[in-house]
Amino acid sequence: MALMKLWVCFTAFCSVVFCASLLWTYKIQSRVFENKRQQQIRYVEYIPSTTSITEMEPVANQASTDGFTVTRTLTSKISGESTNSAIHNTDMDPRGDAVLIVTYVRSGSSLVGELFNQNPDAFYMFEPTHELDRASMKRHLTYTDNSQRTMESTGLPKKEFMTDVVKNLISCDFTKVPVNVLAPESPSHWFFIALGRHIHLRTYASCILKYNTTAEDIQCIPLIKRACDKSFKAFKIVVLRMTDLEPILRQFERVKILYLVRDPRASILSMRKYKLIRPVTLQKCNMTCEIVKRCKEHMIPDLVARDRLQSRFPGRIMTLRYEDLADNPIAYADKIYEFIGREMPANVREWLVNTTSGKIEGDVMSDPYGTSRVNSSQTAHQWERTIQPSLGVEVDSYCGEVIQKLGYESFANIQSRKSQERLRKDGQSNRVQSNAK
Ligand SMILES: *[C@@H]1O[C@H](CO)[C@@H](O)[C@H](O)[C@H]1NC(C)=O
Ligand SMILES: *[C@@H]1O[C@H](CO)[C@@H](O)[C@H](O)[C@H]1NC(C)=O
Ligand SMILES: *[C@@H]1O[C@H](CO)[C@@H](O)[C@H](O)[C@H]1NC(C)=O
Ligand SMILES: *[C@@H]1O[C@H](CO)[C@@H](O)[C@H](O)[C@H]1NC(C)=O
Fold this sequence. Notes:
437 residues, Rossmann fold, 5-stranded parallel sheet, 10% strand
């Protein structure tokens, strides 16, 4: 009997402890961060939890026979904005309807990014981690409450710091994003506004252009926050690699990765053309080093990670070869929009036709990041005619595996195909000439 009492006491004690710990986690989860500057923007933080969460009225509670049901208030109740974030029985963050365009320098990402930049319903950011990538770990970064922090002081490696910034951009949690990221290169903001970037952030851009310092730019943040809150998001990212982004796939169930690749021989040639690789070693990395970096250090590990992540997160990674898009823009743009589960707006379709079909003349030379092309298909394959054979062979020697994995032709193949085409053409023109005689 005494044993029985002890057992009842023990179970009661355990339940109390369990309930208390649940309450405690719940409290942490729904911590509300209020901007210290009282900008009337408030944030709710979601921390992935192992408890299933049901969306409910503020003080409602639920009895449950098969365990516990935790109830909590969602963003809508706090910010007064509607919530369309369906919460599933999962421990993932329900926000973050976003696509990350993961790619490399000179790989056609300006064209792909433009598919979202032109979309009036999208919040598109062009290389949001660019500024941090160039910054030293000791640089003072300014936050929206006017506090300053260095990357070093957070104790995180740079890549992890940048991944966290991308996470906070996905959830529009701008109190945790350095203003230097949101309004880079004060006061000119060249990188942010050049060449028609961020066309749907014009109000915000004209605001940050009014001010001369990052501290003053803080006043403009509510404008970018508003644009972010109501849209689906697209980010072009060249600095972070597939493995860096894995935590984002784990945390946000709706985030997708559009993995954009281009023939490394074309990218390398294009980088040299736009002086992103210097012939003289002004930069530490010469041509050979750039080729090795691109293929051995970035593309191969990315491809390995992609295969692994694809099986872990089915349907959330799409690989796109830039050449396929350039050869067949509408068909592949449709595929991209299908992948993200949206309709391509009519103006995006029209813009794409204009840009890729040679209808508009673009000043490609002065615009290394630009998207204006005379005929996208011709431009994408132009390198085959202009690359020096020695460079073609060199890139193949380091990038053979990448070239093969992505289904591109080896340089030897391309050369023999070209020479056969030349022979055929010569044969034809000889025949034409002899017929004319
Ligand atoms: C920014 O600097 C320019 C030139 O020094 C000055 O004319 C302008 O008033 C400044 N703007 C603000 C908002 O302080
Ligand atoms: C590039 O640099 C490496 C050493 O860093 C050197 O061995 C190689 O010859 C250089 N290649 C070219 C093409 O300059
Ligand atoms: C496409 O080109 C036509 C003709 O130049 C122009 O009228 C139209 O505004 C362009 N559309 C877009 C979306 O760029
Ligand atoms: C663009 O160039 C490709 C390859 O030369 C050609 O097949 C295609 O018809 C061209 N497209 C237009 C719109 O001129």
